[in-house]
Design goal:
By secondary structure, the protein is mainly alpha-helical. It folds into 2 domains: 103 residues, Orthogonal Bundle (DNA polymerase, domain 1), CATH 1.10.150.130; 173 residues, Orthogonal Bundle (hpI Integrase, Chain A), CATH 1.10.443. The chain is built from 14 helices and 3 strands. It has a 3-stranded antiparallel sheet, with no helix packed on it. Strand 2 and strand 3 form a beta hairpin. The model has no long low-confidence stretch (mean pLDDT 86).
């Protein structure tokens, strides 16, 4: 154990409690201790050195960080159980006034929550391509479209020139089962797509004749693997440590819309989900933000 961890005395007291008063096996006690050391190290890393200042957001982000590192759902379940028991103990000992873990979802939900990027990470990723290089202007347009629309990689790979109306600011998308939907395009995505289309695409076509929007340096339709490689390339350049994929930008698109107040039905339509329960996965990520909004603005919040 590291001396610089200010939570160690509380953890030691809790360990004695579960070993003596609760009668738990030593193996269980050791597992809880490892989990709590991991939890408190996360708090310290994020400049949260006082247990009284920890809120639900810190615990939610901690659990998401475990998932992003590839931890199995059963292990995340155990971590949450240890954190909940620890906070209940601190409440009983009157070290805390409230049990902030009481309304945190059980780990069943965490199995389903997809990984996503923060808004800063998205900005860093989308800003990584250089505007003075032809292929990077194409890549910039690809990344902007991913984040602006939430489209799947297979959908973006098949976008045709005629599917877009950049003057009106929308794109037609053909999803699973050839089901068509219309998705708005933001200003920055439109600018990046126009720049690539007007300056670079015709020069890249060479003798090939295709109406596919995004083409390779040889003038051919790009493969799905090509899109994966593009995201990996700029993830590294942007200094993002998470292992991300084209679907990560789809998850980020949905999460950020809901965090900023978009209604679930609209997000469902843009994502092309048949069942709204699929879209509801993303609401688990932003529950704490909604609770804070309610507390701030509701007359009896």
């Amino acid at each position: 154990m590291k001396k610089e961890n200010p939570y160690l005395p509380l953890i030691d007291e809790f360990m004695q409690h579960i070993l003596v008063e609760r009668g738990l096996a030593r193996n269980t006690k050791d597992a809880y201790e490892r989990d709590l050391l991991k939890y408190t190290r996360y708090l310290i890393t994020h400049r949260m050195g006082q247990i009284k200042k920890v809120d639900r957001r810190h615990i939610t982000n901690y659990l998401l960080s475990l998932k992003e590192k590839g931890m199995a759902s059963n292990s995340i379940s155990r971590n949450l159980a240890a954190v909940k028991m620890f906070h209940r103990y601190l409440l009983r000992e009157r070290i805390l006034e409230h049990d902030i873990t009481s309304v945190i979802d059980t780990p069943r939900v965490w199995k389903r929550i997809p990984g996503y990027l923060s808004m800063k990470e998205v900005d860093d990723l989308l800003g990584a391509p250089r505007s003075d290089k032809r292929l990077e202007r194409r890549d910039k347009a690809i990344l902007e479209m991913f984040y602006a629309t939430g489209m799947r990689v297979s959908e973006i790979a098949n976008v045709k020139i005629g599917d877009m109306n950049l003057n009106m600011g929308y794109i037609r998308c053909f999803g699973k089962g050839s089901k068509e939907r219309v998705i708005p395009l933001g200003r920055r995505a439109i600018e990046a797509i126009e720049r690539y289309r007007d300056r670079d695409r015709k020069k890249m076509l060479s003798k090939n004749d295709t109406d596919t929007l995004f083409i390779s340096r040889l003038g051919k339709k790009m493969t799905r693997l090509s899109f994966w490689k593009i995201i990996k390339k700029y993830r590294k350049r942007a200094g993002i440590r998470k292992d991300i994929s084209p679907h990560t930008l789809r998850h980020s698109f949905a999460t950020h819309l809901l965090e900023r107040g978009a209604d679930l039905r609209s997000v469902q339509e843009m994502l092309g989900h048949t069942d709204i329960s699929t879209t509801q996965i993303y609401t688990a990520i932003s529950k704490d933000r909604l609770k804070k909004v309610h507390a701030k603005f509701h007359p009896r919040g």
